[in-house]
Specification:
The protein has four helices and no strands. α2 runs antiparallel to α3 and α3 runs antiparallel to α4. Keywords: Membrane, Transmembrane, Transmembrane helix.
Length: about 130
């Protein structure tokens, strides 16, 4: 377990380094800082309270953790996709947003729901198995 934590921590530190190096290429960091600040406020004021409330009201027992995790991931996916989802109409440059973002966002949400259902099913199977 400790090796896994060290490896995940090292991967996280490496990714933060990549992000920092990309940030150094930005000419005007004001937009990035506003976006990051907005993401923090959106998470702390909207996503986290909603996830906790839904997890408390709708889900009981051992399913609460995976459902809350799925809601956090779904919320983060929605926040990241929001600018593309709210983009009005087509742009003059077809390469700006060439993908079907609403469809891909829904596919990602279905994948999150499917993984959550598999986790819950696996937990149900391990709980029903008689002790040996």
């Amino acid at each position: 377990m400790k090796v896994t934590r060290v490896l995940v921590g090292a991967a996280g530190a490496a990714l933060m380094g990549v992000g920092l190096s990309l940030l150094m290429d930005v000419r005007d960091p004001t937009g990035v800082l506003v976006w990051l600040g907005g993401a923090v406020v959106l998470h702390d004021m909207l996503i986290a309270p909603l996830v906790l409330l839904v997890g408390l009201v709708l889900v009981r027992g051992r399913a609460r953790g995976p459902v809350r995790g799925a809601l956090v991931v779904a919320g983060a996916l929605t926040v990241v996709a929001l600018p593309a989802l709210l983009r009005p109409g087509r742009t003059a440059n077809s390469s700006v947003l060439p993908l079907d973002y609403p469809r891909n966002w829904l596919i990602a949400l279905v994948a999150v729901a499917a993984v959550t259902a598999l986790v819950l099913a696996a937990r149900g199977l391990t709980r029903r198995r008689p002790p040996s």
